[in-house]
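Morning run. Coffee first, then this:
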Amino acid sequence: MSKNKGEYTRGEILSQPEVWQTTIQDIQKEFEKVRFFIKDPYSKKYIVMGCGSTYYLAISAAYLLRKKGFTASACPSSEFVFFADSVDLHETVIIMISRSGTTTETLWAMDKVRKEMSGSKIIVITVRPDAPLAKNSDLVLAAPQADEKSVAQTRSFTSMHICAQFLSEMLSGKSSDFTRLESLPEKLRQLQNRYSSLMEEIGNDLRIKRFFILGGGPLYGIACEAMLKTKELALTWSEAYHPLELRHGPMSIVDDQAIVIGLISDRQQTAEASVMRDMKRLGARTLVFTDNIQQSDWSEMDHVVEIKSGLDEQQRGVLYLPLIQWLGFNHSLAKGYDPDNPTNLSQVIELSGPVPL
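And here it is:
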């Protein structure tokens, strides 16, 4: 039976409130297991790794851990395999993130840890708990209900991000923010109801040839994933930057064929608003995501999405993504593409042969 273009991706994007709800219910059951998994967690260092989308998720996860007072960094799995000699691995916990659990470079990294870091703990975040990566880990946090048929990650990314948020809380030994995180599914439902039609309108505009997506601090990894999603789904030139970095060269190609999307933080909102106004004066279409529209003057912007989450900037970051996924999905359809099957891509990168060392 034939299917409509983007049938799988459409359903996966729109199902996220329900999937998040189940993910949150399941992940909270792991609190005691995580709490006692690592003794004296603040004495450890944490390396978070993944490939593609999950590397960008690793950037976010490492920030969340640092926010809780842990020493944490992110790297692509392949960088760990080939350049781990530059990393201090003493007393290190490895957190591996993979949708499929079969990504070759991450399996290589696991093999390296097992051979060269005896006694190291490995935590895996995935949507496929029966895959090789999960089976060979020491602890698994899984969101199987978020698995996908599509090539591009949408609900799997956001659900694994929620797992990473809860993991940072669990490792800190506290559950005080669980209630705040439990509000995410309903907040997303409200956002989809209010702004899905706006994302469709922007996505259908074929005058847009370039995407610039800006996010700082806890929102940088989110901005990178949003960049990748518009690139994968709509085959459109897209870049992500820390907001003020856009002035240092990239704005030379900002014009009336570009859209600049600002994921606005709390702590540097004034500076980010100034960047957005500068890009508007250069002719760009502008789209702002902010939690409280009253905190800055957005009158010059073309579009403003008010999140109204009441959450802080690291807790609410995952809420920005589903709307941008929906924008990219509609831009793909407007260009005549099938979002389920991006050009030159497959759902999993699996390489044959031994580790090329």
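Residues 184-203 form the longest helix (20 residues). Good start to the day.
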